[in-house]
Each structure stands twice: as structure tokens, then as C-alpha cells.
Amino acid sequence: MLRYVLTRTASLVASLVVASLVIFLVLEVVPGDPASFMLGMNAQPETVAALRSELGLDAGALQRYATWVGGVLSGDFGTSYAYRTPVSGMILDRVQVSLPLALLSLALSTAIAFPIGLWAAARRGTPTDTGIMAATQVGVALPNFWFAMLLVLLFAVRLRWLPAGGFPGWADPVAAVKALLLPALALALPQAAILSRVMRSALVDTMSEDFIRTARAKGLTRWQVLTRHALRNALIPVLTIIGLQFSFLLAGAIIIENVFFLPGLGRLVFQAISQRDLIVVKSVVLLLVVAVVLVNYVVDLAYLAVDPRLRRP
Fold first, then answer.
1. What phi and psi values does residue 86 have, to the nearest 5 degrees?
2. What transmembrane ranges does the database entry give (predicted)?
């Protein structure tokens, strides 16, 4: 068990180091100069040089990398080139939208997928199973932004139950949750379709194991065997997909954030790229990579609770 944890921790640290290097190097080779972009094409060379010095862009690549990483480790993400405000404050404002949206989407996805996957596995080979799998295939194929627009037309325009977009802030929690509900649902349903298919496949594979036949021989019903014995043993691939889905929901919701005009991390990165605000791009992308790596690390540790074989010395 200790060896397993140490191995995963070493992999976590190595992944973060490599990710920071890749992010820095990729943005280094991007053509264009942020100082020239900020000042315009007609700026004098000495003015551009002065701004580059002020922004720290005239230092060597190794020094800039060390300064950036050191600042990130201390909580100082630098100052935005475009807005001249601390990047950490900009990220904190946007995380208050993106993180609750990702968590709400993941909760909805899991709440929908688990009973559907269990029901399909319990009715394996029946018309019910076939219908559920066909419906989930449609859910996987549908673009979430198209589905989001349908939700807006139904619940915001026609029924007027929920707002069509924008975010009022957390001063009014009820209004904030209502603003996030439609985008969370648009993100959750395609992910629920994927998760339910994985759940059903994992349960079907587990139901063919010897210990399941032993449980059935003891007189347990199919549903009791499914929920008491098969479910826990089928959770490893399900946990993997849940971890990947949370990473996607946190880092990949840029289209949904633009559809609903949500001031999240996705829109922040999009705006920073269009303005050549590379310090914001580097910091936000690194933060998202850290979140993805940490979630995968937590999922790896969660395997210890699910699979007793990993706890053996």
C-alpha cells in the first residue's frame, strides 16, 4: 500500500514539473510579442523595449521560467499584461463560477448514470437494455452546445423557469444556482450517457465472475447480487471515468460558458489568448493541469478503498 501511494505521488510531482515546462515552452514559441501587441503597430521601439523591461520579458527564458514557477508556488501568478491587475484575483473570481459548475455537472451526471447503468445491467439482453443503450448512444453523439440551446429555448424562453444566461454572483445563492442549473445540465447529460455505458459494461463483465455465481447459488436475487457484490467490483473503471469527466468539466466547458455568458475560467483563457495576455494563459492553463493531475491522483488513491488487492504489502 505504501509503495503504491509513493509511486503515485512521485508520478504526480513528475507530471506537474513536465506540464509546467511544456506550457512555458509552448507559449515561448508562439509568434508575436505581447508588448508590441499592447502598444500597437505604430509604437516606437524604445517604448516597446521599456514595456518589455517592465513586464520582465527582456530576461532570459530560464530566469522567466524560474520566476513564474516560484511565483505560482507562493500564490503570486503575476500581473495581467492587458488589465494590469493581479492574475490571482482574476482566477479567483472565475473559479467561483467554473468550480461550482463542474461539481454540479458531475453530481447530476453521476446521479443520472448510476441508476441507468444498474438498470441496464440488471435487464441485460432485454428490450429495456437495448433501448437504454440506444438512448445513451444518442446522448454521446449530441453536441452539448446544441443541447444547451434547446434547454434555453424550453426552460428560459418558453417556460421562463430559469435564466437564459449570465451569473449574478453568490450574494444570492438561490439565483446563482438557478443560473448554473441549465449549463450544468447541458454538460451533465452527455457525460451521464458515457458514464452509464461504462457502468453497464463493467457490471456485465463482473456478473460473469465466479464469486457472482457463488452468490447466486446461495439464493440471492439478481438485483441483490448486482448491488451488494458486483457494484463495488465494477467501480474501478467507473471511478476512472468520473475523474476524467471532472477534469473535462472544469477545463473544457469554454463553449458552454460562452453560450450562457458565464464568467468562468474557459472564457478567461479565451479572452487572454485573443489579447495576447500570455501570463494569464500560462497561469490558468497550469492551474487546470494541476487540477486534472490532482483529480487523477485522488482517483488512484480511491482505488485503495475499492480494490483490497492494492492494500496488500
1. -60, 135
2. 12-30, 99-122, 134-155, 175-195, 234-256, 284-306
Q: Is residue 276 assigned to a domain?
A: yes
The domain that holds 261 is classified in CATH as 1.10.3720.10
Question: For residues 87 and 279, is the Cβ–Cβ distance under 8 A?
Answer: yes
Handedness of CA 75, 80, 85, 91 (dihedral sign): negative
Final residue in a domain of this structure, among 32, 49, 73: 73
Cα angle for residues 36, 42, 45 (degrees, 5° grid): 60
pLDDT of 230 above 70:
yes
Instruction: Kindly state the percentage of the chain with pLDDT values over 90.
Output: 11
Q: How far apart, in Å, do the first and last CA atoms of the chain sit? A: 6
pLDDT in tens, 176-221: 999 999 999 999 988 999 999 998 888 888 887 777 778 777 777 7
Q: Scan for cell 492587458, then name that residue.
A: 82
Residue 82, in any domain of the structure = no
Q: How far apart are CA 97 and CA 266, in angstroms?
A: 10
What digits encode the pLDDT tens for the residues 53-69?
766 666 777 888 888 88
Among 37, 96, 74, residue whose Cα is nearest residue 273: 37
257: left (phi over 0), alpha (psi -120 to 50) or beta: alpha
In a domain, 9, yes or no: yes
Rounded to the nearest 10°, the torsion over CA 193, 295, 235, 132 is 0
Q: Exposure of 100 by Cβ count < 10 A (0-12 exposed, 13-18 middle, 19+ buried)?
A: middle
Closest CA to 147 of 193, 115, 111: 193
Domain that includes residue 110, residue range: 87-311
Answer yes or no: is 69 within a domain. Answer: yes
3: enclosing H helix or E strand: helix 2-28
Q: Which residue has the higher pLDDT, 37 or 216?
A: 216
Distance CA 207, CA 120 (A): 13
| pTM, two decimal places | 0.80
